[in-house]
């Protein structure tokens, strides 16, 4: 064996070992990385080519060299097919059509150039013996024949493989230099090897032949890259195992029941699931049909195994059956997952039986409370802090002329308060809500009913608070006082009219009495008889005491009674002035503030008038 055949033999051994290792790695990694298989086959074809180079380096005749030449070119064609396969797997290309067509072309071409002696492939009658001059004047002689046009075409197709792999690598890894650079360098080395091989066989160079060394460089480069991938995968696997352990611990300690359903059978369940359904061992439920525990029937359609499909996720409420036959209310959520590389459902459920019973009890109480509210004769409503109507009783719906569903959710201020009143009403509610001003728990304001008419309502408002003492809204009771207010206004108007009339009556009575007093005074001036004059003066004074009462009622704000203390003071002053005894008689009053109506005041005034007059005349 020639000395210069040792390097390709060593390279063939190394490349074969790398290929065998990745072939073993492909099955070790459970056939989840197809690039391991395609790279192993690429290495094996490259090792075969390097082995054929060893044979070609040890021939001494043209016929023997032609035989090795055909095997080498055929193996190069197989290498192109394997490189195309590996390149598409490495970049994870989803388009397989170009790869399959290219591989079929190179495989068929490899077989043809090996077995055929047709001039399209070879010219056996045209020898092409080449001599490679190595350093220290060491030479290697190749006994070959001139290849046909098809062999040259194979070289061009090999360059197209380089261009294609470069293009799909750039599209896939343009932002991932650690992935793109290795495939870029390997395709560049592959292209350089093909160019070197073509130039050598065309006689353009005589001292450098690098094709087997180029293959070796490709193998080393990509093996290093894939080894890093293997290390990364191992690290990821370890991290995944840790993550799975944490996930399992989380599931086992979860307060919700968790199970995995595959083909409508339970494949996994946690402790909480067993506790909810009254079981003690997981073996009692593992492998059992999910319909044994849940109804109505769920998961009758299996999850899709398509990777492009968006997983289904849903949340429903259903019934469950405990081991003892008790029916449970469940809040259930499920989603599609991959379990042991097969589609399955992950189910999370919570026992809401107690909550549902509490909700039903609360609903019954709420319905009962609503009945109480509906029999109330006034509007009752609850408002949120922003004025949204949250509750309205039947009377309120009747007042507003709308159905309950049309009212709930509407804004009270915007929908039912007239525009001119909105600001004022909001301010009244805000004072009560913020407690920044005086409490306004009662107020009256108009509301707009369904017909567009404005009705006047009287409201009592109180704050609603939660268990933390935080204000959550208002509770309002409103009574339609439109008719009552109209009646009050009419009565007030009538009362004012009667007061004016009564005031005018007192004024006219006082005037008439004054006229009588004036007439009597005229008569008094004409009388000469002292006895008659005395009688007439007494009569005049009695009439004046009555006129004083009507005068006071005329000037008073209340026409049904008078302040009798003031009346006595005025009566004394007038009598003292009339009889001119003020300089020699002094009086003292000890009277409480007493108010007398006109029926009592007139006789009392006449009696006092007689008493005081007799006291002045006969005592002094």
Fraction in helix: 55-70%
What is the CATH C level class of the largest domain, in words? Answer: Mainly Alpha
Q: Kindly report the name of the CATH homologous superfamily of the largest domain.
A: Rhodopsin 7-helix transmembrane proteins
Q: Gyration radius, to the nearest Å? A: 59 Å
Q: What is the count of DSSP helices, taking H or I runs of 4+ residues?
A: 17
Which shape, going by the Cα principal axes?
rod-shaped
CATH topology of the largest domain: Rhopdopsin 7-helix transmembrane proteins
Structural category is alpha+beta
CATH architecture term of the largest domain: Up-down Bundle
**Segments where pLDDT lies below 50 for 5+ residues?**
306-310
For the residues shown, what is the average pLDDT?
78
Give the number of DSSP strands: 15
Largest sheet: 6 strands, antiparallel
Labels describing this entry:
Beta-Lactamase, 17 helices, alpha+beta, single chain, 4 domains, 620 residues, 5-stranded antiparallel β-sheet, Rhopdopsin 7-helix transmembrane proteins
Explained architecture:
By secondary structure, the protein is of the alpha+beta class. The chain has 4 domains: 231 residues, Rhodopsin 7-helix transmembrane proteins (Rhopdopsin 7-helix transmembrane proteins), CATH 1.20.1070.10; 98 residues, Beta-Lactamase (2-Layer Sandwich), CATH 3.30.450; 104 residues, PAS domain (Beta-Lactamase, 2-Layer Sandwich), CATH 3.30.450; 123 residues, no CATH class. Helices cover 58% and strands 18% of the residues. The protein is built from 17 helices and 15 strands. The strands form 4 sheets. Strands 4-3-8-7-6-5 form a 6-stranded antiparallel beta sheet. A 5-stranded antiparallel beta sheet has the order 10-9-13-12-11. Strands 1-2 form a two-stranded antiparallel ribbon. A hairpin with a 5-residue loop joins strand 12 and strand 13. Helix 1 runs antiparallel to helix 2, helix 2 runs antiparallel to helix 3 and helix 14 packs antiparallel against helix 15. The longest helix is centred in the last third of the chain and has 45 residues. The protein is rod-shaped and about 195 Å long. The chain starts with 5 loop residues before the first helix and ends with a helix. The relative contact order is 0.04. About 1% of the residues have low confidence.
